[in-house]
Amino acid sequence: MLPRENYEVVVIGAGPAGLEAALVLGRQRRKVLVLDSSAYRNAASDAAHMLLGQEGTAPALLRSRTLESLKDLPYVDYALDTAKTAEVTCHDQREHVTIHTAAGHTIVARRLIIATGQRDVCEQVDGLAEAFGRYAFHCPYCHGFEASGKDILVLAIPGVPIAKAIFQALYLKNRFSSSVRLLAPERDITGDFAKLLTTSSIDVVDG
How wide is the angle at C-alpha 129 spanned by C-alphas 121 and 142, nearest 5°? Predict the structure, then answer.
């Protein structure tokens, strides 16, 4: 059972953003509940980057350290549970959010913070999920440094605007490696996009 049913704030998500929110609010003596589904976007990553004082630390270690520090805050509760529904309700003549969880709990809170981040969908490309976080990455801004000087192939994912893959290829070529190729249907690359890739010496692999 949850320690309480009523909170000032419920935080959905126990990644860096959700735990940071809980830490800040707990230090302000706010009654906070963190709901952790344990489905983390960065679960496949070996290291987190661009966090002050934590460069290269494994995401799982960051979470465990932060959860330990939250135990020192009596106003922060933590539950390994998933929010299923949330609705605005009126309670004691004030608006609240009523949350129902997968474990069957009903929680009332004054405010709700959704810190679930993004979800990476790898199923469009066979084998991508197995490579994800090891030698296939989702963000050149986060992971480009580790690819410096390497042979990089940018995949245009079906269903995603091709401009995204083109801009990623251009960014990687400009910042990190002289060897960048783009795997995409050539028929979809026209006009200024085609000129940009040619000018930047980024080869297109048609497919």
Answer: 75
